[in-house]
Specification:
The chain has 387 residues and is an alpha/beta fold. The chain folds into 3 domains: 65 residues, no CATH class; 48 residues, no CATH class; 207 residues, 3-Layer(aba) Sandwich (Rossmann fold). The protein contains 12 helices and 17 strands. β4 and β5 form a beta hairpin.
Length: 387
């Protein structure tokens, strides 16, 4: 497969690059969002590597190197071409209300596959001839006896189904912590302790994460929380990443997905074994104040939150914020009761995060029909001095 472009596409691409949108580079990690709704996270791309899309299609990644992020790309049978775009996928425009058929009614339609005059063999023959997906869809519309009697909305649904089947286009994204969280939650949520994007946002907000803070993070979410903290603070601040002695350095994947300079990340993020903290030997400095942090974030289903909190809480400054995430309520209730009994925190609250996605289209705005029930629980508060 080869990259093709027209003389009309070149100026548009140059305009996109000049506007400040970054280009895809060799070694980058990219997130590919397909028109089918699925996502692919490709790490450290190389020119000789192919991107597998679906069961049969592949796309040479060398064609993406040097192209802009956030553009749409379409795969044809014989060639791959850039579809310039900002944030709108290629789609059919809705007709004006005046053009809608008054007598259109989907109640009359019978789903018996007899309304399509184009046979499956003819469709396969068109594919063998290298006919583009858009042309096949046009022929399907021409051969459909029921298309013209459908309502506008029914026609749009019909087109959407056919595009998903006969067209393959995708958007390349420079992954953020939000994108990485969304990807793993849809693919393999147990790897990030079933943390959804709203749960991650709550954890950062309730933990008072912003630049020039010193943050201690203990997580078993593949480094997702650390990556999100780094993204929010930038280069201004310090992150102390705590991990069990035998797992130090194993849950750091998400930090490398952000396409940040490794030296820059190492200057902000510092790894500390959990055993070193428990023994009270966090660093070689004698000044205790240098060991204290402004924020404490804990996100784990693998270890007991109360055990982690008990050992890390002494390193949190007075008036410092803490936030603990778990997909289960009971372990956080135990932490809540201990903090209340010790009177070592104020504004202690246990919240359940919940979010509902909406489809926003002209005259078709409504909540999505299916959604995940919850995104876990967050316990937060502010540390105070015990009398």
């Amino acid at each position: 497969k080869k990259m093709t472009s027209t003389s009309e596409q070149v100026p548009q691409q140059l305009a996109v690059v000049e506007s400040g949108i970054p280009l895809i580079k060799e070694g980058d990690t990219i997130l590919v969002k397909l028109n089918s709704g699925s996502m692919i996270l490709q790490q450290h791309i190389k020119p000789e590597t192919n991107l597998k899309i679906g069961k049969k299609q592949t796309f040479p990644l060398k064609l993406l190197i040097g192209q802009p992020y956030y553009a749409f790309y379409e795969i044809f049978e014989e060639a791959s071409a850039v579809i310039p775009g900002d944030d709108e996928a290629p789609q059919e425009e809705m007709q004006d209300e005046e053009g809608e058929t008054v007598d259109a009614n989907t109640k009359r339609l019978i789903d018996n596959n007899k309304s399509q005059t184009l046979t499956q063999d003819e469709i396969l023959e068109l594919k063998k001839q290298g006919v583009e997906g858009k042309e096949i869809i046009s022929k399907l519309i021409e051969g459909s006896k029921s298309f013209q009697v459908r309502t506008q909305f029914s026609q749009q649904k019909y087109l959407k189904r056919k595009k998903k089947k006969y067209l393959t286009y995708f958007k390349v994204i420079d992954p953020s912590a939000y994108d990485i969280c969304d990807f793993y939650f849809s693919k393999n949520p147990e790897k990030i302790s079933h943390m959804r994007v709203d749960g991650l946002a709550q954890l950062l907000t309730l933990g008072s994460i912003y630049p020039n803070r010193k943050v201690m993070v203990m997580e078993t979410c593949m480094g997702l929380v650390t990556a999100a903290v780094f993204e929010r603070m930038g280069c201004y601040g310090e992150i102390i990443r705590v991990a069990p002695d035998d797992m130090l350095g194993k849950h750091v994947h998400a930090v490398t997905y952000l396409n940040i300079n490794r030296n820059l990340a190492s200057s902000v993020v510092r790894d500390v074994p959990f055993g070193k903290l428990v023994s009270g030997d966090m660093s070689d400095e004698n000044a205790t104040d240098e060991n204290m942090v402004d924020c404490l974030l804990i996100a784990t289903n693998q270890y007991s939150p109360i055990s982690v909190l008990t050992n890390l809480y002494p390193y949190l400054r007075e008036s410092g914020s803490f936030a603990i995430y778990s997909s289960y309520r009971e372990p956080l209730e135990e932490c809540h009761n201990k903090l209340k009994d010790d009177k070592s925190a104020v504004l202690v609250q246990l919240t359940e995060t919940w979010m509902r996605e909406y489809q926003v289209l002209p005259k078709r705005t409504h909540p999505m029909m299916t959604t995940s029930s919850a995104s876990g629980f967050v316990l937060s508060g502010i540390k105070v001095k015990i009398d």
